[in-house]
């Protein structure tokens, strides 16, 4: 009997280490007797629907190895296409793709919504008599996949690198703010995280001894504008300057982004860094309109997508774990462990050591893990030492070694010629929500 093939795909926002999870899946699957050809859904589930399946098994091993230090999701693409229950034609099409290409393993790399897709697709295949194993590979810089008790998932690949980025970003911003504070005494910085505070919380890793005039406002803790004015003015009185980190989704009573200014993706999620105005800019405007109690003005910085694609700032711990969680996903698939997401757990909370396990897709799909309230300081402008203890091991201690040629990064270059894709056996298809 012919071996069953695997489709692996990615969804949602990328991360610095997502390709190393892909690499872990591919390199491990190639060694498994149970798994035949590994195909990539070109740009996620949309590529599966369009029967655009890139052969990864036949790619140059050197290029697969270079996925380790190739950030974002450009190698096989990602998407923000959500499969909803009513899209019956889409589900029918995926089943036909599985049958046409002898697919027995479906592995989806992503966050909460991606785990929902993996769960729905594989379960439907089984309900229709197809022997398909559905597996999830975790990915999210928000660190919001899993349970609040950290028993199913301790953290997700991508978070450690973005936390490291913010650690260094705040350190360097502090140097500038300290030097330029006579003219720019207040610096407002906006971190990614619509509803979840793990990314802005990482700013504290830049200053674990709390020596900087730093205030952190998480999306989980609502605040009013007068409280922020009071907090910043006190810092200006005590230190002559203040640095403020806010979640992009922070709700400030008396200062809310009007809905018409918000851009949303196909999932309905607010793309706050892409919206017409950001909460950081609104807060900065409000501070300057009210006027600071010292000379100078407030200014703001809103880092863009380099928070999630800067390989130079990637955590070596995160990179290693991303690979092994991909390896775990492939091993689960080969063992027929249907309906699970590969996970990272913490074997020893005092002396950090990761272990790789599994969690039921049904328990992590479409469920947001929030930042623990007990990790937020009573004053609401900081995080506790318990958070520092949790996050510090994830950012690592060393710089990642990135290969370079002629002064430029040497990134993976997969063969994406027409011949590298599986022959199309079915009629052309337009995904349901893409139709006009």
TrEMBL record:
Locations listed in the record: Cytoplasm
Binding annotation for substrate: 140-142, 192-194, 248
Keyword Ribosomal protein carried by entry: no
Domain (Phosphofructokinase) ranges: 6-310
One Gene Ontology molecular-function label: 6-phosphofructokinase activity
Enzyme Commission number(s) of this protein: 2.7.1.90
Catalytic reaction list: beta-D-fructose 6-phosphate + diphosphate = beta-D-fructose 1,6-bisphosphate + phosphate + H(+)
This protein's UniProt keywords: Cytoplasm, Glycolysis, Kinase, Magnesium, Metal-binding, Transferase
SUPFAM superfamilies linked: Phosphofructokinase
Pfam families reported for this sequence: PFK
Function: Catalyzes the phosphorylation of D-fructose 6-phosphate, the first committing step of glycolysis. Uses inorganic phosphate (PPi) as phosphoryl donor instead of ATP like common ATP-dependent phosphofructokinases (ATP-PFKs), which renders the reaction reversible, and can thus function both in glycolysis and gluconeogenesis. Consistently, PPi-PFK can replace the enzymes of both the forward (ATP-PFK) and reverse (fructose-bisphosphatase (FBPase)) reactions.
Family as reported in the entry's similarity comment: Belongs to the phosphofructokinase type A (PFKA) family. PPi-dependent PFK group II subfamily. Clade 'B2' sub-subfamily.
NCBIfam families, alphabetized: PRK14072.1
Protein's name in the database: Pyrophosphate--fructose 6-phosphate 1-phosphotransferase
Lineage summary: Bacteria, Pseudomonadati, Planctomycetota, Planctomycetia, Planctomycetales
